[in-house]
Amino acid sequence: MIKKESTKVVFANDNLEREFYSLSENSPLRKNMLRAIRDIKENAFVGAQLTKDLIPKEYVQKYKITNLWKYDLPDGWRLVYSITTPSKIEIISVILEWFNHKEYERRFHY
User: Fold this and answer.
1) What's the CATH number where 63 sits?
2) Is 99 within the bounds of a domain?
3) Measured between alpha carbons, how far is 85 from 109 in angstroms, rounded to an integer?
4) Which of 6, 53, 80, 83, by CA, is between 20 and 30 Å from 60?
5) Number of C-beta neighbours around residue 18 at 10 A
6) Which residues form the domain of 59?
7) How many domains does the chain have?
8) Cα separation, 32 vs 77, whole angstroms
9) What's the angle, vertex CA 17, arms to CA 48 and CA 77, rounded to 5?
10) What are the phi and psi torsion angles at 106 (to 5°)?
11) Within a domain: residue 55?
12) pLDDT per residue rounded down to tens, the chain (110 residues)
């Protein structure tokens, strides 16, 4: 397995970041996402890479991504992120969305 630290982990947009920070400090989802962010920072490739044909067209159009990774959170929640390398020494992981299993299945047409 490839292991490379993310230079940083960011949210895809301000609304998503606000939504994350609006979660209660005691929220299990927030705590699990903080652990996921820490794991992704330690190893950008910690998630499961989805094949290109599974990347929703909406993500490609909106974020211009070419790769997508899924990080399984407890209780059926999923966090999806993309990895970008703006320079040869910088790896940035971009959190695109998180959702429960039902919403994940809907987004990915399972």
Assistant:
1) 3.30.2310
2) yes
3) 29
4) 6
5) 10
6) 8-107
7) 1
8) 9
9) 40
10) -65, -45
11) yes
12) 667 888 999 999 999 999 999 999 999 999 999 999 999 999 999 999 999 999 999 999 999 999 999 999 999 999 999 999 988 889 999 999 999 999 999 998 87
Is 3 inside any structural domain? no
Pairing of strands 90-99, 8-11: parallel
In the numeric block, which tokens belong to residue 12? 């895809």
Give pLDDT, residue 99.
95
Query: Which residue matches tokens 């940035």?
Result: 92
The model's pTM is 0.93
Task: Tally the residues of the chain.
Answer: 110
In a domain, 2, yes or no: no
DSSP string, 67-91: -EEEEEPGGG-EEEEEEEEEETTEE
